[in-house]
Amino acid sequence: MSRPEPTRIVSKLPDAIPFVAPEAYEREMGTKFLARLGANESVFGPSPNAIQAMTEAVRNPQWYGDPLSFELKSALVTKHNLTNDHFVVGPGIDGLFTHIASAYFAPGDRVVTTLGSYPTFNYFVDAVGAELVQVPYRNLKVDLESLAKEAKQCQAKAVYLANPDNPSGTFHDGNAIQHFIDQVPDETLIILDEAYLDFLEDYEVADLRLIRLRTFSKLYGMAGARVAYAFGEPETLQPLNRIRPHFEVNSIAQAGALASLQDHDFKTKIQEKNRLAKYDLAILLEKYGLYPLASSTNFVLGDAGSKARAEAIVTNLRQERVFIRKPGLAPLDQYIRVSVGTEEDYAVLAKALKQVNL
Amino acid sequence: MSRPEPTRIVSKLPDAIPFVAPEAYEREMGTKFLARLGANESVFGPSPNAIQAMTEAVRNPQWYGDPLSFELKSALVTKHNLTNDHFVVGPGIDGLFTHIASAYFAPGDRVVTTLGSYPTFNYFVDAVGAELVQVPYRNLKVDLESLAKEAKQCQAKAVYLANPDNPSGTFHDGNAIQHFIDQVPDETLIILDEAYLDFLEDYEVADLRLIRLRTFSKLYGMAGARVAYAFGEPETLQPLNRIRPHFEVNSIAQAGALASLQDHDFKTKIQEKNRLAKYDLAILLEKYGLYPLASSTNFVLGDAGSKARAEAIVTNLRQERVFIRKPGLAPLDQYIRVSVGTEEDYAVLAKALKQVNL
């Protein structure tokens, strides 16, 4: 008997999911991780304001959340000094990528990105049958000049960059980003993923072609709640509103995100905690021969010297019930990636690294 | 200056959103609704177990939710006597529609549905450029025979039906549905939206081509939390896992959904409350000359006799701070649709209907 076939595009996609979740390893191991330092989640947790707002919100989950996220957007309007129409709220940056891809990318379109940078983005490009054009890192940083050049050369539909970048942790300042934007062809959409920018001072860049993305998953400690936003010129964002599920953003997450923004000291407080804890992490990694790269995020790359050693460390740490990840592609594949943790996490990590002895 | 263009498909889509949210009306009115009976939300709220589980979950939103929803799926495995691979959990049925459309529908594909049935489904078909083929209701019910016939005639990629149906509230039993399934061509995907089936006894139907959809938004009172699931043969569901954002389901919602299922009396209790409150609603509507249709859901259609009168009632009730909706298309466009409410809601509704006097 014949059966319904997926689209030609989806038929060709691999079954593999982008990456294995820590819970999947835990089920395999039959025990929990002692330190969960693989997904750049915030060990500092959310604002107490957010917990309070969400504790109230879960008492009445029977009402759909506001599909226009008006209250949350009003706080964003103030924060960024823009208008309501400059924002689209979505269920995480990945969810917003789905909508950007559906709104802008068609089969045959070329999308330029950095080889090895946030591979999940590529997953959404593949899903709509667009073609990835990948430019290597340069000195372990996103190569802005080559990205812009390639965008021009291949008449790219879009160019993607994460700033700060994941998994390298490196950063370009606002001037460099604005200069990059100015080099990109007029017809090319610029997708600027700023998931980790909250850990630094904000910068201003502007362009008609720009979609910037922010999340409450990282500094704001709400990865499980699924709330993020895109901002840019209303005309550039408007196509997303033609295709997104309008009631997709959780009401509890909206309440938590709003309350986080209203906790005005929170960002500075976490920036400071993160800075100190990242410093301790770098020292720890160096002590075990894993030379740390300077990082503008809440994770640190440690140089294991070779891909084989880096892979062995990740696997062996897992056996010691420590969850970390590593970049898959050169030149970053000889590094391990460890998220900022608590003192307890570091004690567990140090003990495990000693045990692993690689 | 030229700028990035959305895809050809998305360029042609209207700017309009599927429907206006009650919050948007409230902002316009400058005041809150006294009765919110327009979105078939559950006035009975969620299980106390769910509130407790979510109250705990919001204390630690910093961790991503399990992308495989293993614990929730394990409860579903028990409930439906299937395997883990028979399920995909998603952020609401609308969210799952996005994935079904992306996985299965390409431009030129024909998708058969009932004219006037859950119009949001059409929105997701339009978003990927597939062609809608719409079959009229027959005696105010989904016309199973004509749906199957049309699916054969137009070599449909998929056929959609909601059972119980929204907005008619009518229902076909399991035998009728199985008979329908048997008439549909082998190559046609069958999308069976059972958002409201929890209000009735479950039935068993089986087919390789079938994707059934359930939600925690209706009987389980968790519309704001955004959690639903698709189930069917693993091979039929598997394409969804190639394109969905794997971390899209809120951890808080997953905890709440699991706890709801573990509250074994909850479903029967709400079914009974809903049955009684629906009876009261039917009596109320009849009293005001809005002859009620029998409903298998948590809402009731009341016959206003004409489209113009139905529209006037909806608009005028809004001025009395009562939020209801109405179907847009014939033969249901002469009805108003009112969700089951509390006694307080009904007191407000009765007073407003008297005031409106249409």
What secondary-structure arrangement, pairings included, does this model have?
The structure is a homodimer of 358-residue chains.
Chain A: H1 8-11, H2 22-29, E1 35-36, H3 48-57, H4 70-80, E2 87-90, H5 92-104, E3 110-114, H6 119-127, E4 131-135, H7 144-153, E5 158-162, H8 174-183, E6 189-193, E7 210-215, E8 228-232, H9 234-241, H10 251-262, H11 266-287, E9 291-292, E10 299-303, H12 307-319, E11 322-323, E12 335-339, H13 343-356
Parallel strand pairs in A: 1-11, 3-4, 3-5, 5-6, 6-7
Antiparallel strand pairs in A: 2-8, 7-8, 9-10, 10-12
Description:
The structure is a homodimer of 358-residue chains. The first copy, chain A, is of the alpha/beta class. Chain A is built from 13 helices and 12 strands. The first copy, chain A, has helices at 8-11, 22-29, 48-57, 70-80, 92-104, 119-127, 144-153, 174-183, 234-241, 251-262, 266-287, 307-319, 343-356; strands at residues 35-36, 87-90, 110-114, 131-135, 158-162, 189-193, 210-215, 228-232, 291-292, 299-303, 322-323, 335-339. In chain A, strands 2-8-7-6-5-3-4 form a 7-stranded mixed β-sheet, with helices on both faces. In chain A, strands 9-10-12 form a 3-stranded antiparallel β-sheet. Chain A is globular and about 55 Å long. At the A-B interface, α1, α2, α3, α5 and α9 of A face α1, α2, α3, α5 and α9 of B.
